[in-house]
Amino acid sequence: MRIATWNVNSLRSRIDRVEKFLERHDIDVLTLQETKAREDQLPLMGLQALGYDIAAAGTNQWNGVAVLSRVGIEDVQVGFEGMPGWGDPIADESRAIGATCGGVRVWSLYVPNGRKVDDPHYVYKLDWLAKLRAAARPWLGVDTALTGDWNIAPMDEDVFDMAAFAKSTHVTPPEREAFAAFLDDGYVDLVRPHAPGPEVFTYWDYYRQRYERNRGMRLDFVLGSPSLAARVTSAFIDRDERAGAGASDHAPVVVEIA
DNA sequence: ATGGTGGGGAACCCA
């Protein structure tokens, strides 16, 4: 089974690329972030024709998450217990959705951006991650994938130039500690060991031709419970998907599960 | 310090 995650930066504007990506890599489950589509604008007929069902959450214009699956979607849960804003579709249900696909519990996560370190959104981001950690701990005992855009670059090598982020979010010690806490609990990075450097980035800003100059960041991750990690046979970042006109600013990340 | 490029949706907000 192949599981992928992709911040598409608008599903409807990217639909042709999404369909080609699914076919090119024979993807069974694709989690999406920044779908930017209301539920009444989904599903999309082309995806159904390819055999994918969709579970989506989010109603506002800039977030939105979804799970596409051709191996079933069961026990869909919008948001996680304790999530700030849980039960408020406008506020934050657009940031997390979970479903069981082909026997694996898959979460599509869009971790809050944080904006600036002195912004209330930064505090909110850390709180959101703490609540996710608490919710995710019991899931370690079953096949679980925490996929998505974490909006954190966990290591210096995950940023093209640390000096450029001296006073920025995504690299601060509290954010990195929040990410590392999942690994401390037993979650495993399913991609990094199988796709070793130097091509580690998953995101390149649209500004200043950052992709063409390979000035990117690693923000998109698939973390797995130990039992799922034991089933991984390969993983890669589809960086070519970031090339050319009409690309998302994020590349998809793919994990093969035996 | 600022502004650069995209997407949504029709004026700004968000990344």
UniProtKB/TrEMBL annotation:
The record marks 220 as: Important for catalytic activity. Mg(2+) binds at residues 7, 34, 149, 151, 249-250. Probably binds two magnesium or manganese ions per subunit. Keywords: Hydrolase, Magnesium, Manganese, Metal-binding. One of its GO terms (biological process) is DNA repair. The keyword Membrane does not apply. The record marks 250 as: Interaction with DNA substrate. The record marks 151 as: Transition state stabilizer. Residues 4-250 form the Endonuclease/exonuclease/phosphatase domain. The active site is at residues 110, 149, 250. Pfam families: Exo_endo_phos (PF03372). One of its GO terms (molecular function) is DNA binding. Its cofactor is Mn(2+); Mg(2+). Belongs to the DNA repair enzymes AP/ExoA family. This is Exodeoxyribonuclease III.
